[in-house]
TrEMBL record:
The keyword Transport does not apply. Keywords: Ligase. The lineage of its organism: Bacteria, Pseudomonadati, Pseudomonadota, Betaproteobacteria, Rhodocyclales. It comes from Pseudothauera lacus. One of its GO terms (molecular function) is ligase activity. Residues 18-330 form the AMP-dependent synthetase/ligase domain. This is AMP-dependent synthetase. SMART domains: Haem_oxygenase_2. The keyword Ligase applies.
């Protein structure tokens, strides 16, 4: 095999063979072990063309990617936050014939012909027969940008260009005493993949790769900065990469708890979105050596980076591999990485017009002035870059996210996401203070506090960058009301930005969902801790509410008014699929060593009894359609947590498959049910949809109370938790 095709194997051969290179929840890997595994993987990949990886952070993800490069196969990283439509698009556009994943149910549900063919390092290997897709010559990786539609662009990148980027990062930071890197961002994000994996490997640094949940990532529920801080300290990390939102959450937590960051930290790169200088200053005051950078997928990730001794308010100087210039106020970049887009003709000129407005100062440092496509033109004809005002708002730690709008309006409006623990009502004073430093045409005249913009609810990219068009669509009536024209608001009809009611429901209940997914027992399991007593306690309460599901649905069908008669076939389908599920739970209890008969004869704990009582009350006294708020909560929780929870619990306790029929069946079935539910909700009237929203918020509280009562119930019988990893 030519040396160029075995770059990473050759690099590892030059390191001391017993050096630990990668570590994570699944164990550690020495240079020698990695070389052996890469050779074996190259043989296994011989019949593959495009290899997709959909998996949590860990050494296996890295090994799979390096093996693809060494074997000359195209690597397709799939972000876990991609929707089913985005996954389908990526797999179809790339012509992927192999998937390595810890989520085989999601891939199978796409109905693209993938079949399980084996396992490797705890991941599932899936293959299909598919015609090859023409890609630009030299494509080593396809990175799909997380845009505002279900059809993100697949950026084709060369191996040489990616190594250029990594080598340039190493050169830029070579004087810093960096001894260990902690991968804090999802590896499917090119920023972490190149600057957090490739660059440390080139430098000879060990890399720690814990699961994302143990770093504080909580999906739609947000982010737990305490978990990130714990990992930074425990790993003695010298470097990590963050997006601005995570840096802000971490600094707010350190401030609130009166702590400073780990003294082992030497360098924290911050990129993915614009960073307020005040945030960098605040972070450094708390011991976080934060430095802003700039990059984009089409350039192979990092383009500019500040560093100690060559720092400033901008994004830093261009790295050695990038040709950077500003033409007509727009930033343009050329590297060897960008080859074109999957499914499109390769560009004749690989200089990329970024769409970012910026300028270079006398030191050659890049300063961003906004986005060309984001420029607002008020009804007075004044041009305003929203990033300018947003940066001023985000400089205050009480604001986690901010999006300013006002195109064609006489004044600007801001949607503000308060930081955890911040008083939303007090944000008015902040807006007044920011306005005092702005010219009159750029002042915020109206504002509203809203729920977070996340990749999970479709309102932000994986890097945390807000998706403005989708945010505008989701908050169309809020914005109209701010301008005093709620009754005259023109609905958004752009099919690329219009949100279904199911998506609106996900967004509107994001804060309420936190009460459920933030329960200690959920966090413990996601971080690798669980006990048999806790699992049996969960199954017991699950039995007590699931045994009411079929009777509730039967009552619902009978109570539906004539205007909702169209729902009855859907209710009948639910009944047919839900009958007998409580018996599955009793079987699981018996298989896990519990007393199923005792559970059948027992009474529920108060939280479960209250949730069931509320469900019956909705049907008998309220609007029966609101019952689907409960369906939304329970099925959405199953899709988000059930399969992962089952795997973690089984790994920890060594229980048989027969002890997990409820979790695994619902984790799979409810993926199909959510699509059915989304169609049903879309047909409802706005009044019925409002009732569903109210009920969903209540059920998140009631269902969360069930989970929050579990640890105390389990502690008396089994105080010691067993690590899931």
């Amino acid at each position: 095999m030519p040396v160029a095709e075995a770059f990473w194997s050759a690099l590892l051969a030059r390191r001391p063979q017993q050096d630990t290179v990668l570590s994570g929840a699944t164990g550690s890997w020495t240079a020698a072990a990695m070389r052996d595994e890469l050779r074996a993987l190259q043989e296994r990949l011989a019949d593959s063309r495009v290899v997709a990886v959909l998996a949590d952070n860990g050494p296996p993800w890295v090994l799979a990617e390096l093996a693809c490069q060494d074997a000359g196969r195209v690597h397709l990283p799939l972000p876990a936050f991609f929707t089913a439509a985005q996954l389908q698009h990526a797999l179809h556009t790339s012509g992927a014939d192999t998937v390595i994943t810890d989520q085989p149910e999601r891939i199978g549900a796409l109905d693209l012909g993938f079949c399980l063919t084996g396992q490797w390092q705890g991941l599932h290997w899936m293959r299909r027969v598919v015609a090859p897709v023409e890609l630009p010559a030299g494509t080593a990786k396809i990175s799909f940008t997380s845009g505002s539609t279900g059809a993100p662009k697949g950026v084709c990148l060369s191996a040489a260009g990616l190594r250029d980027t990594a080598a340039a990062v190493v050169e830029r930071l070579h004087e810093l005493p960096l001894t260990r890197h902690l991968a804090a961002l999802p590896l499917a994000l090119l920023l972490e993949n190149v600057a957090g994996i490739h660059a440390p490997l080139l430098r000879g640094m060990p890399i720690h790769l814990p699961p994302l949940a143990s770093l504080g990532w909580q999906g739609a529920a947000g982010f737990d900065p305490a978990a990130l801080d714990r990992q930074v300290r425990d790993s003695a990390a010298a470097s990590l990469i963050l997006v601005p939102e995570l840096l802000k959450a971490w600094t707010a937590w350190l401030t609130a708890t009166g702590q400073r960051a780990s003294p082992a930290l030497q360098f924290v790169a911050v990129g993915g979105a614009r960073v307020a200088p005040a945030l960098i200053e605040h972070a450094r005051a708390l011991g976080i050596p934060a430095y802003q950078g700039y990059g984009l997928t089409e350039a192979g990730s990092v383009v500019c980076l500040n560093r100690p001794g060559d720092d400033g308010d901008g994004c830093g100087a261009a790295l050695a591999h990038a040709a950077l210039r500003c033409a007509d106020g727009e930033v343009r970049v050329r590297t060897r990485a960008f080859l074109g887009y999957a499914g499109q003709t390769a560009p004749a000129d690989t200089e990329f017009a970024t769409g970012d407005l910026g300028h270079l100062d006398e030191r050659g440092h890049l300063h961003l002035d906004g986005r060309r496509g984001n420029l607002l033109v008020t009804s007075f004809g004044r041009n305003v870059s929203p990033e300018w005002i947003e940066s001023a708002l985000l400089a205050d730690p009480r604001v986690m996210q901010a999006v300013v709008s006002g195109d064609g309006r006489p004044a600007l409006a801001a949607l503000l996401v308060p930081a955890q623990g911040a008083d939303a009502a007090a944000l008015g004073g902040l807006v007044e203070r920011v306005n005092a430093g702005l010219p009159d045409y750029a002042r915020v005249a109206h504002w509203a506090a809203v729920a977070p913009f996340t990749a999970a609810n479709g309102l932000a990219t994986g890097n945390g960058r807000p998706l403005r068009a989708r945010i505008a669509a989701a908050h169309a009536h809020t914005l109209a009301a701010l301008y005093g024209a709620a009754d005259d608001a023109t609905p958004f009809t752009d099919k690329e930005t219009e949100m279904s009611f199911y998506e609106q429901l996900q967004h509107a209940t994001a804060a309420d969902r936190q009460h459920l997914v933030g329960a200690p027992i959920v966090a413990d399991c996601l971080q690798g801790k669980v006990s048999r007593a806790a699992y049996l306690a969960f199954l017991t309460q699950a039995y007590h509410h699931v045994r009411h599901t079929t009777p509730l649905l039967m009552a619902l069908g009978g109570r539906l008014p004539e205007r909702l008669a169209w729902m009855r076939p859907a209710v009948a389908e639910y009944i047919a699929e839900e009958i007998g599920h409580e018996e599955w739970i009793l079987n699981d209890i018996a298989a896990a060593g519990g007393d199923a008969d005792a559970v059948r004869a027992s009474r529920p704990e108060l939280p479960a009894e209250l949730m069931v009582a509320y469900a019956w009350d909705i049907i008998n006294r309220g609007n029966p359609a609101a019952f689907f708020g409960m369906v939304f909560v329970l099925e959405g929780t199953s899709v988000a947590l059930a399969l992962t929870a089952a795997d973690r619990i089984q790994q920890a306790l060594g229980l048989p498959d027969a002890a997990f029929s409820y979790l695994r069946s619902h984790g799979t079935l409810d993926q199909e049910h959510t699509q059915h539910l989304a169609r049903l909700l879309e047909r409802m009237t706005p009044q019925d949809q409002a009732e569903v929203l109210h009920a969903a918020r209540v059920f998140f509280k009631l269902y969360g109370d069930i989970f929050r009562a579990l640890p105390a119930a389990a502690a008396e019988t089994e105080a010691e938790a067993v690590p899931c990893n």
